[in-house]
Amino acid sequence: MLTQKSLLQERKLKLRWFVAMSSLPLLGVITAFGVMPQTEFISAPVKTVTEAISLPQATPVAANSATFWRNERVQRGDTAAELLRRLNVEDVSANNYLRNDRAAESFRQLATGKTVQAETGADGGLLALRYLNNNGDQVIIEKNGGNFKTSTLPPQLEQRLFLRTGEIKTTLFDATDEAGLPEAAASQLAEVFGGDIDFHRDLRKGDKFSVTYEMTYSNGEPVRVGRIQAAEFVNQGKAYRVVFFQSDSNHGDYYTPDGKSVRKTFLRSPMEFSRVTSGFTSARFHPILQKWRAHKGVDYGAPIGTKVKVTGDGTVAFVGKQGGYGNVIMVEHQGRYTTVYGHLSRFAKGLHKGQHVAQGDIIGYVGMTGWATGPHLHYEFKIDGQQRDPLRVALPNALPISAAQRAAFEETTRSLTERLGLLSNVSVAKLD
Q1: Where in the sequence of the chain do the CATH 3.10.450.350 domains occur?
Q2: Which of 23, 181, 222, 334 is 20–30 Å from 424 (CA)?
Q3: Rg of the chain over CA atoms, in angstroms?
Q4: Residues 342, 326: contact at Cβ < 8 Å?
Q5: What is the DSSP letter of 60?
Q6: Closest CA to 159 of 141, 175, 178, 136
Q7: Residue 304 and residue 375 in contact, taking contact as beta carbons nearer than 8 Å
Q8: What is the pTM of this model?
Q9: d(Cα 200, Cα 273) in Å, to the nearest integer?
Q10: pLDDT tens, 136-167?
Q11: DSSP state of 289
């Protein structure tokens, strides 16, 4: 009896173990087997039921009905065929239309970086092409029957305000690039503060800048860098701050937050990014003449072809070749000032004697004509005919905000000044 009772208890324990294992959650693959004598189970009759289940009819999809949209950016040296290849367009008629038809000329002239969207069929045939042309208009090329049709829609323009702040580690150009500031805005930054800061000599590691600038968008795509609205530059611990004020529909300028004009009559430098290779001195050993003589100007080393800007409003007094200057431009300003730009490789197209030029206009390009051992710009600044050191001479300011416009100036620029205050507390970041 004890033996039979023990066997029954053992069978019950095995059954409980089987039930417990069967109730475990299925985590991975768990297999449990309970092996019991057949006498412990009662066989139940099994009935097989067969039932027909009606399924909905599947709608056949045409092999060529699917379409695909792809985006690609125009790369330097792209041809129409190469761009279409990256868009997965395999369409001889589309290729011929885009390469030859006059209506598709804007496609062939797209600038590097422009985005093109293409809709294709499963066979690679082009159905539609969309892009913004170099003027910011939206161009749509669609297949209509067996032909292509081009339509142009006016741009939907909007202005967006961007904030950038950065820190100088090596050069201004490197810092603005790291901060994500567009090249056009970086050039404006150098020009705005060019009367107070010599970016060739005064820049120091750790200097900081903050910029608020506009970008023009067309149909959601950036098309143009706008004007800097406000900026701050901390140079060697001294903070310079400016805001832009539009005095009327045709005139605007940069001022300090208290209304003083920051625009100098002359820029400190005729180039944005370069280095001083020879300064203003009364005694310098001339590399060509091989003797000591005065150097009554400043030499800026830069690659051939670098743009040269006129440093102040004035009138071209001379443009051509002259002795050791080589290709040179001389500009007269306000009757008593003259600036000289020597060793140029070429002049701005159409520049001529008597032409009025505005501060910042491109008048020539760096070269090594005349007495020059390497590519550089020789720049002179004269007052009443006497050369003065352009890096040290005091430059007069433009007029401040008038009393009549003071209230409008303060109301317009208040929010810009507040933004600069917020940015000055940010270390180094990219803010949109």
Answers
A1: 67-153, 158-263+423-431
A2: 222
A3: 37
A4: yes
A5: P
A6: 136
A7: yes
A8: 0.52
A9: 8
A10: 788 999 998 888 999 998 877 889 999 999 99
A11: T
